Amino acid sequence: FSVVRLMSDGSFDQGFGTGLMGFFGPGIVTTSIGSSGRGYGLAIDSVTGKLIVGGTATNNGSSGAVVRYIP
């Protein structure tokens, strides 16, 4: 899964992706799940601001996958 977090002006959120789970650049986080993972849905917890991504992961068959990111 790859998640990009943007500020209200469209710039990357410099505080998101500080090395946790395979940081690729400011505001971008990539998480490897199985041999092939695909995110299909995103939810934002209105109380904590955490991002929840749901999708599938493939590794000798397809399974459901959920990842929670802490901004």
Tell me about this structure.
The protein has 71 residues and is mainly β. It is 0% helix and 48% strand. The chain is built from no helices and 6 strands. The protein has strands spanning 2-4, 23-25, 28-30, 36-44, 51-58, 62-69. The strands form 2 sheets. It has a 3-stranded antiparallel sheet with strand order 1-3-2, with no helix packed on it. The chain starts with a strand and ends with a strand.
Which key features would you list for this structure?
71 residues; three-stranded antiparallel β-sheet; 0% helix; mainly beta
Number of helices: 0
Question: How large is the radius of gyration?
Answer: 13 Å
Sequence of strands across the biggest β-sheet: 1-3-2
Oligomer: single chain
Helix-and-strand structural type: mainly beta
Roughly what fraction of the amino acids lie in strands?
Answer: over 45%
Order of helices and strands: EEEEEE
Q: Report the helical percentage.
A: under 10%
What is the straight-line distance between the termini?
16 Å
Approximate shape:
globular
Mean pLDDT, to the nearest integer, reads 81
Largest sheet: 3 strands, antiparallel
Work out the number of β strands.
Answer: 6
Low-confidence stretches: 19-23
